[in-house]
């Protein structure tokens, strides 16, 4: 355990007062007492009980707790009585959630910053809603120091409840050394297994694997206690979407629709909490007024912000004056736009969308960040937070340094495991540095570390890349001190080590991730079984890295990396580990690993086989692209020999893989200069379709994707809507930001008939660097897609493509059709 005592990045560096051994127990007998003072804070009293409890679990000896020391007995001084012995200048170096643990003149001193009062009574709080963040925003540094002391003595809490608790059997316990630690990250959000009864009606049926929650058995209160014992955050910066949490629609949609983004069809963006017009002077004024009211201590109702979620009489955030702590907390206020950003098309906003921006992740940066800067200038005594997110995640060219009270939340490259791909880590580091140069202080970070199980397609895909987790966190620590880790919470064993590792590293980024892992597998699964389980983890980690480096897709995941034979071998090793620890306290943990970690992988493979197994047996139809010396005219008639000779392939509904009720056919051919496509989209209302421009996937139209190198990574997308708008993008790979400066110089014509519309497209070969080549020897990747806007996406039927194997989205180049060029 000594190797884990590495000073935190923000740790106090002072000379130790003493290196004397302090004896706590000997031969199962207490040799020290716990002293807490006459009127200790509630958290110090709690710390004394926790110390007493776990020392007894380890040694069998029960340490007495007293208000005053006994001159005849060495004392473990907690809280204020410890501070009396620690020089004031040294204690001033302790920050929130930090502590000093040291031996001074024969007494062991443990002290941190502590709040007091009934609002800090942990026992009482555990009986309330453990998910209300504002309930837990109080200083408890001495308690954290106590847990750190117990950890140094060998105690471990690998997961909530007794299932994850490990107390070494030690008749004699001594401490020597000097530990001074402050957390580097103030916000250390790893999240929790959301098991509170208000969120799930049946606690026994909320995990992916049936029975996992019931068998492992921790309750919501135990989950909160685990976060405390892991020295979790006592403050969280608000950094979430503002419009839905400040009730913009309820407050302004009726009387001030002009506050909301003007869409291309003339409507206002009122869906899902609303999207705002960020150049509207009243939007700026109302935002500043909200922040000013919150900063002045006013209730949310004084700004007419409605109560939502639990009726109209109960406060949702009673300890935050009913302001959502997701956007308002302490002296911080988030102005992050709504998710799925809908840009305003009013003349003022259009001027803010720079025509020379070439990356999709820069498209609306000026629109959003200039607004953020103006808000910050209007509330100089508050901190204004906003994520660098989606289409405004990269600074725009010439962007000026932001006001000193702006906190930028870095959200690009948000899945650290993906940083193994090519030079993505270097680009991640460069972009982070660019944002850091535009800020005056510490940044925040929003990451997706625990990406497994985030969708039906990824259930059962393990993620074990601790080295990259640690590397990315250390880079984050250079520029910021607030870290969010977003994750799903429907499995326990599957994400157990990742959660444990992140809790450790967010407190101290300099810890050795290899030592944390070694300690975890040997401590949780036992010294005999741990190395075997660790070997499974190591193989999974190696496969994860190989998968990421090769940008492998879901099909490769289950057909190349985690096949039935691989999983069978893992189960065999788990069975070997189980034999070594039969009848020991580690038996249940190994059993749970086999049943719920490897079992979830079995579930993922089974799910893949059920949804894709039969589909993959029938290959995607190839789109034959035949050379024609007489190219077709773009007139929407398809009556030339070139089209009569071309073989059509159908489109399939992307959710089901079945041909849609409104059929679509696609043909292709080429000549020396161009590649041609013909799309026949059947629709009895073809002549009545609303011909308006819009973002791809939001209006009726069609798309052509071309993977000209056939590497299943880089591809071009051209989206044609019925209003005559062409949207084009170049995807270098899944990591690098999408480019908007690529242009195909395509020409096209749409003809509307009684029961269909026909689109003819001509795309110059030189746009794909294919001019002058003999294409008859080549095969590209291709996907043609169609959007039928009157069908709801959630109900299916909205999106169709030429790929019979595609599910849930167009952007899966490994599932594109083959475009086969022939003479």
Describe the structure.
- The protein has 823 residues and is an alpha/beta fold.
- Helix content is 29%, strand content 18%.
- It contains 21 helices and 31 strands.
- The strands form five sheets. Strands 19, 20, 21, 22, 23, 24, 25, 26, 27, 28, 29, 30 and 31 form a 13-stranded mixed beta sheet that branches.
- Helix 16 (513-524) crosses helix 17 and helix 17 packs antiparallel against helix 19.
- The model is unreliable at 1-18, 195-201 and 309-313 (pLDDT under 50).
Question: What characteristics describe this protein?
Answer:
823 residues; disordered N terminus; globular; seven-stranded mixed β-sheet; single chain; alpha/beta
pLDDT < 50 runs, ≥5 residues:
1-18, 195-201, 309-313
Q: Specify the structural class.
A: alpha/beta
Would you count the extended β strands for me? 31
Radius of gyration: 30 Å
The proportion of residues in beta strands is: 15-25%
Question: What is the oligomer described by this structure?
Answer: single chain
Q: How would you characterize the largest beta sheet?
A: 13 strands, mixed
Number of helical elements: 21
Describe the SSE topology.
Blueprint: E1 22-26, E2 29-30, E3 33-35, H1 42-59, E4 65-66, E5 75-78, H2 80-83, H3 88-91, E6 99-104, E7 107-111, H4 122-126, H5 141-152, E8 156-157, E9 165-166, E10 173-175, E11 178-181, E12 187-189, H6 212-216, H7 220-229, H8 242-245, H9 248-252, H10 281-295, E13 328-329, E14 332-334, H11 347-352, H12 365-378, E15 383-388, E16 406-410, H13 424-437, E17 443-450, H14 466-479, E18 480-487, H15 496-507, H16 513-524, H17 530-549, H18 554-561, H19 564-580, H20 587-617, E19 623-627, H21 641-645, E20 649-650, E21 652-653, E22 664-670, E23 674-682, E24 701-707, E25 715-721, E26 726-731, E27 747-752, E28 756-764, E29 779-787, E30 799-801, E31 817-822
Parallel strand pairs: 3-4, 3-5, 5-7, 12-18, 14-15, 15-16, 16-17, 17-18, 19-22, 19-31
Antiparallel strand pairs: 1-2, 1-10, 6-7, 6-11, 8-9, 13-14, 20-22, 21-30, 22-23, 23-28, 24-25, 24-29, 25-26, 27-28, 29-30, 29-31
Helix pairs in contact: 1-5, 10-12, 13-14, 14-15, 15-16, 16-17, 17-19, 19-20
